[in-house]
User: Fold this.
Amino acid sequence: MMQYLFQSFNFRGDENGRPYRDLIQAVGVEEISHVELIATTIAQLLDGAPGYKGSQGTPGSGGSTPLSPALSNGNIHHYLVGAQGALPVDSAGNPWSGSYVYNSGNLVLDLLYNLMLEATGRLQKCRIYEMSDNKTLRATVSYLIARDAAHEAVFAKALETLGVNWGKTLPIPNFDATKYPEVKKLMDQGVHRKQHHWRLDGVSEMAAIFQGASPISDTEDTLEMTDDLPEGGPVPEAPERAEEFAPGLTPELIELMEQTAAMADEG
Assistant:
């Protein structure tokens, strides 16, 4: 996300390079929504089953240990620091860092690096898919597998216009993704071959690049820039978690919040 955004912020060149800037920017803006999607999924998975109501009464009363699941899960900080929510860290718990952002200013080099990132992301999401049959996890991961295929095509197509011949190299990993039933459903809808420009003014030149035959060797799909926004979905409200002291509002604070809301309505 940050890499693509900074590459678009710092893009150099005249009108000949504008389609490449618009293309990089479109993927960067979409990645913001992917962060929200992944964070929401992580929070839903950490928050327990739909019927889970957390601890009742005083947290830890009588020596109870309502947060004991933290000791048997992958990253204790999701409970200790994040109140059963997502954190800006990688799967090993390393915090996000701007040092990961690659923005050389050289268009070909940046596009190569971007393609490597998308290929790596798709590879790892395919592995995650095979780790769990949880429907929530698979719904999110399947969508991201399909969209990473689109982003591989975005950067590969851009490099193709600059003289790179991919042959049978792509996609990475090179396998029939329709073997995953959830991914097949999305690919049947064309999710992997469309890219929205994400511009409020609707003016984007990325279609000059993202068009025609896909550079991915296992498909005969035609790439398409679209003005139609992808259909979103509601973000569920996270319930109160007394054992996490989140949000930790006393009756007095709730009363102040209600008074503030009432003043805003009157104003």
Summary: The longest helix spans residues 18-46.
